[in-house]
Each structure stands twice: as structure tokens, then as C-alpha cells.
């Protein structure tokens, strides 16, 4: 008799979703349900309703989201707030209607105020103004947290939320304009090395500080939090601040990060900073003490994670070149 839970990973082709699938399979889970964007449009309530009605899901990892860096958030604010709110509302609601008791919602550290005290504790949520460059995305993610909390209060579900810091690793988006900072830097330095460019220009002053978490560590944290018994999780949270920060507890300036990425790629040219471009939030370091109390902490150092991420990037570039040549 199969006693394994039937687990739906929403967004399994994305950075975090693919890592969650890797972790679950490594732990021996075989009843994992996935759907590509073409197979299931999560912004369409009718499609999501039919999916949950027919698939009999036990657990949901809600990793599906529209994500991007400062440029993408500034350029497509309506897409970021609409798509994310629709996905969250449809999945959480239909999960509850169809008897799913356990769900893990993945948010983002941008939910916190731009000038939040450092390191950022979970209770700082909605205590100040958000960073303007990604406010629509942040508002959607805050709504997702409150959606889970509200369904727990009204229906007695066990829907949890984790707030990751900046993520990177295999499966990342390397678009030259719409990607996050590490994959954007990695691609820029790689192309500069290949073309022998004398200089790489980085957006902003390089002074902002950021925390970075290797995506497989994030996935391991997600599975850990999902599998905590209800009483243990409830002991470290409260109904109005039920989310858990996930990070390393350490940060680095963008300038130092750029140098690390350049060294990883093997670029030997100059690094310049374009101060006409926005910096975003001055600092975002998460307080991860709750997660440590719950028995988990990150294990991949930044330099090691960058090496793994770059190896995955090179493999992806080579595969794309081979397909183009075929």
C-alpha cells in the first residue's frame, strides 16, 4: 500500500521548483505531480479547479511565480502584481476546496519595508514603506502570506509560508535584462571574458548589501518546513506572522559580489559602476533565528555556490549552442 503523499510542485520548471523536485526525489518521493505552463495556466481559475478536482493532491509547494530583477519589475509592474495574485488566489483556494491540508507558499524578502531594521525579523512585515522599484511584486507576495493565514484561521488548514532571500543556482534565468543580480552578472562576465572586453559595467553604485542563498539549500529548507509537525511550527510563529525567513544570515556588497562572480568566471578586465542606475533597497539581511530554532540552516558557502552555478550556466550555454548548430 502506497503511504507516500501525492505532492504537487507548482512551478517545477523554475529555479526553486526544480530544486524542490530534486530534493523530494532524493528523499525517495515518487508520487510528484507537475504541470508545465502550457499544460496548466495557473492564472485561469477554471483550469486550476479542474486540476485539483481530478488529481487528488495531498501537499502543494507553491513555487510558481512571475519573477525578475529591478528592470523587469520597473517595466512590467501590472504583470507582476496581476499574475502573482491570480496564481496564489487560484491555487490556495482550489487546494482548500479539494481537501489539501498542507501547502507551502514561497514569498520573497522584498515583502519587508525598504528601510527595515537589520537583520530583518518576520514581525517587521508591513511596518513601513516598500521599495518602490518592486512594490507591485512585493504587494502580491504579502497578499499570498495573508491568504494562507486567512484560510488557516477560517478553515483550519495548515498552509505555511517561507520568505527566501536572493536565490541563485542551476535553473536560473539568465536573460540579459530581466534576470536577478547573480545570473545577470554571471552572463555579463562570461560574455566579457569570451569577447575579451576590457570592462564590465555594473548597475548602481555597488554599495547596497545583499544576502544570497544557493537554491538547493532553499529547497531543502522548504521540505524541512513542510514536514515539521503542526505544534512545532506553531510554537515559533503566530497567526498574524506565520511566515519563516530563509537565508544564510550573511550578506555582501554588490561590488564584492561582482568581484567574486568575475573571479569565478575567470574575467580579468576592469569593473565599473553606473551610478545613474537605481540601487534599490540599501540592505536586505534576513534574521534567520526562527529557522535555526526549527532545526535548519544553510550549508553552501557563496563561493562554492557560485562555482556550481557557473558550471550549470556553461552547460546550459553549450546545450543551446549545440541545438542551434543541429
What do you see in this structure?
The chain is globular. A 6-stranded parallel beta sheet has the order 2-1-3-4-5-10, with helices on both faces. The chain is α/β, with parallel strands linked by helices and 326 residues long. The chain has helices at 15-26, 45-55, 70-75, 77-97, 135-155, 181-195, 215-227, 230-235, 254-265, 289-293, 302-325, and strands at residues 7-10, 32-33, 59-62, 102-106, 158-164, 166-168, 199-203, 209-210, 212-214, 243-246, 252-253, 270-274, 283-284. The chain has a single domain (7-325), classed as NAD(P)-binding Rossmann-like Domain (Rossmann fold), CATH 3.40.50.
Output the keywords.
alpha/beta; Rossmann fold; six-stranded parallel beta sheet; 11 helices; globular; NAD(P)-bd_dom_sf; EC 1.1.1.271; isomerase
> So what's the CATH class?
Alpha Beta
Strand order of the largest sheet: 2-1-3-4-5-10
Question: How many domains in all?
Answer: 1
Number of strands: 13
Structural class: alpha/beta
Distance between the termini: 46 Å
Unreliable stretches covering 5 or more consecutive residues = none
Helix percentage range: 40-55%
* 3D shape: globular
CATH architect. name = 3-Layer(aba) Sandwich
* Sheet with most strands: 6 strands, parallel
Question: Strand-residue fraction?
Answer: 5-15%
- The ordered string of helix (H) and strand (E) elements is EHEHEHHEHEEHEEEHHEEHEEHH
- Helix count equals 11
